[in-house]
């Protein structure tokens, strides 16, 4: 009888050991294979976005710089976060309490960076649609670079602060040895990390939607004979509206994918790493990092062109960075 009980413990030699939360082998294999596939796909797709925007000069715009920052965040999710999550699906945590906390720092940084990048993208589209004449002055490359730098600096600081109690005393929230539990400050995280930024995003996009509808009506009511300058202006507005629609889809998918995560934060629930609910919630969040490049592929012709040039290795040709991709 004692041997049977010991076999169900993570560490039979330790009295405070957790019991093994076993799952069917077929289920474990499915989780490993599927999450490994999602990880690889996320890395490849976001790497295409990073190389495209970094290499081709035509894509060096303030908006694309924000997309680049978002792609870096998604790339880190595929490269580090998902592989760590595969370890968390094991029935027992064997890497120790400190690694349990450190393994969650990058996810918190990437989540925070994604949220702030979405806010910056919304601001960019708001200025482009609602104040197009002063867009180039208010949204310059230098200002966007500073905002991106501040974004990542704030995210690193915020992540360490929100996990401070866990870092100060690793394992303090574990009920037994071999468990990996992270305590998040529910109200603080949900307000600063979700409610405030998402409210900002929704308000800005509602304003963009109202202006876009009014512009579309004005275009339809225009007289057929217009000046050349006016037709150029209309073309610019159409491109800006298309970009706003595309980024609106990106933002909508982001909100849908991140809602479960922040709802758990709001409840101040202790995340039992490796549980079925935690794996499902994390998977939905990870899907967002993989879906963003897929959205670009459907809506951005430049992404399809640059991806083809990258895959066929034509970017290694002389002056390939000056290629026309828009």
Automatic annotation (TrEMBL):
GO cellular component: plasma membrane
Membrane topology: Multi-pass membrane protein
InterPro entries: GPCR_Rhodpsn (IPR000276), GPCR_Rhodpsn_7TM (IPR017452), TAAR (IPR050569)
CDD domains, per database record: 7tmA_TAARs
Cell location: Cell membrane
Gene Ontology molecular function: trace-amine receptor activity
Coiled coil: none
Transmembrane segments: 29-53, 65-85, 105-123, 144-164, 190-213, 247-267, 279-299
Domain G-protein coupled receptors family 1 profile, residue spans: 45-296
Record key words, sorted: Cell membrane, G-protein coupled receptor, Membrane, Receptor, Transducer, Transmembrane, Transmembrane helix
PROSITE patterns on file: G_PROTEIN_RECEP_F1_1, G_PROTEIN_RECEP_F1_2
Family per record: Belongs to the G-protein coupled receptor 1 family.
The protein, known as: G-protein coupled receptors family 1 profile domain-containing protein
């Amino acid at each position: 009888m004692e041997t049977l009980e010991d076999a169900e413990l993570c560490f039979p030699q330790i009295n405070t050991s957790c019991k093994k939360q076993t799952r069917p082998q077929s289920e474990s294999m499915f989780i490993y294979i599927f999450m490994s596939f999602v990880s690889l796909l996320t890395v490849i797709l976001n790497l295409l976005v990073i190389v495209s925007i970094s290499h081709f000069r035509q894509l060096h715009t303030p908006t694309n710089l924000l997309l680049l920052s978002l792609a870096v965040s998604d790339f880190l999710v595929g490269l580090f976060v998902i592989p760590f999550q595969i370890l968390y699906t094991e029935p027992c945590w064997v890497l120790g309490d400190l690694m349990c906390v450190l393994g969650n720092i990058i996810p918190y940084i990437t989540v925070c960076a994604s949220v702030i990048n979405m806010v910056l993208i919304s601001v960019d589209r708001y200025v482009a649609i609602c104040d197009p004449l002063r867009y180039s002055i208010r949204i310059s490359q230098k200002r966007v670079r500073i905002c991106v730098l501040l974004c990542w600096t704030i995210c690193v600081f915020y992540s360490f602060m929100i996990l401070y109690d866990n870092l100060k005393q690793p394992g303090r929230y574990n009920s037994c040895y071999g468990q990996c539990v992270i305590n998040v400050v529910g109200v603080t995280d949900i307000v600063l990390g979700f409610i405030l930024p998402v409210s900002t995003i929704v308000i800005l996009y509602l304003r963009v939607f109202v202006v876009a509808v009014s512009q579309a009506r004005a275009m339809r009511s225009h007289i057929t004979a217009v000046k050349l300058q006016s037709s150029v202006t209309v073309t610019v507005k159409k491109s800006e509206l298309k970009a706003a629609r595309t980024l609106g889809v990106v933002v909508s998918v982001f909100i849908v994918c991140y809602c479960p995560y922040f709802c758990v934060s709001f409840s101040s629930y202790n995340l039992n790493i490796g549980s079925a609910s935690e794996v499902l919630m994390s998977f939905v969040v990870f899907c967002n990092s993989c879906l963003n490049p897929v959205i670009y592929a459907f809506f951005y012709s430049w992404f399809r062109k640059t991806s083809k040039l990258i895959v066929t290795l034509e970017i290694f040709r002389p002056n390939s960075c000056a290629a026309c991709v828009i």
